[in-house]
Amino acid sequence: MPVLRARWLDQPFVHWPFPPALVQELLPPGLVVDQYDDQAWVSFTPFLMADVRPLGLPVSRGLDRLATFPETNLRTYVKGPRDRDGLWFLSLDVASPVLALAARTAVGAPYHLGDLSVTEHDGTRCYAGTRRGGNASYQLRIRPGARSEPSDHDVWLTSRWRAYTRRFGMLLETAVQHEPWPLCEATIVELRETLTAAAGLRPPAEPLVHYSTGVRDVRIGVATPAAIHTAGRPT
After folding, report:
1. Bridge partner list, 70
2. How many CB atoms lie within 10 A of CB 123?
3. CB of 64 closer than 8 Å to CB of 96
4. Which residue in 12, 5, 2 sits closest to 214, CA to CA?
5. What is the average pLDDT value for the chain, to the nearest integer?
6. What global pTM score does this model have?
7. Which segments within the chain are labelled E, that is strand?
8. Contact of 139 with 61, CB cutoff 8 Å
9. pLDDT in tens, 31-55
10. DSSP 98-146
11. Cα-flanking dihedrals φ and ψ of residue 219, to 5°?
């Protein structure tokens, strides 16, 4: 049952391969790193979170500035209880103090308040952010290209319908529903980031890159406990 609606707009996908054992060290009990071609993958995804609101509540003009703001995720791909695939967020940076506090309190998501921006200049999308109270930052300039037909790997990286978090020692899962991402080719003009280092990862290899104009009917469910087998393996 969805409780929130939103739009996720102007989203680049910057994906890096890592050794699975390295990423597994960053995961909590109950989650196992998911692999593609024997590699774990970590993705950097800045975007514009737009029109966030409870289900059934229309967007109010007076609340536009509170409901639309930049967000940046550093995430990896996992399997949880019952072998259900999903995302584990290594960090989430957001320009909304309300969302950062609410998400940390409610589900334990690792949100950090930051100074973030999403702009466009001469056909180039520009994303920048600096985490408040820390040294993590990024600067990305990307040039979108032609619409592309997603490969099996592209679908594996972008079609994830739940996220895992941890709160008071309990593993939680939150379901997400939206239309498939429309993907485009993309070229990185500039990329400087310290988010991966702040998460405990070594400097990444050459990335796989996509860009999407976004998805416009995102429905986010309530976080529920993820059942864990007593033997310590996903059921």
Report:
1. 48
2. 7
3. no
4. 12
5. 90
6. 0.91
7. 2-18, 32-33, 40-54, 69-79, 85-94, 111-121, 124-131, 137-147, 162-167, 170-177, 183-193, 208-221, 224-225
8. no
9. 999 999 999 999 999 999 999 888 7
10. HHHHHHHHHH---EEEEEEEEEEETTEEEEEEEETTSS-EEEEEEEEEE
11. -125, 125
Residues 6 or more apart whose Cβ sits within 8 Å of residue 105:
none
* Residue-wise pLDDT tens digits, 62-113: 555 557 999 999 999 999 999 999 999 999 999 888 777 777 777 888 999 9
Report the distance separating Cα 74 and Cα 22, nearest Å.
Answer: 15
Give dist(CA 54, CA 4) in Å, integer: 4
184 close to 148: Cβ distance less than 8 angstroms:
yes
Buried b / exposed e over 184-223, threshold 16 CB at 10 Å, is eebeeeebebebbebbebeebeebbbbbbebbeebebbeb
Backbone angles phi, psi at 230, to 5 degrees: -65, -20
Q: How far apart are CA 164 and CA 174, in angstroms?
A: 6
Place of tokens 């059921």: 235
Evaluate whether 86 touches 122 at the Cβ level (below 8 Å): no
* Beta strands 69-79; 85-94: pairing state: antiparallel
CA separation, residue 85 to residues 19, 22, 32, 133 (Å): 18, 19, 9, 33
2-225 homologous superfamily: Acetoacetate decarboxylase-like (2.40.400.10)
Q: 10 Å Cβ neighbour count for 83? A: 11
Give the integer Cα–Cα distance in Å for 141 and 10: 12
Tokens 């037909």 correspond to what residue? 149
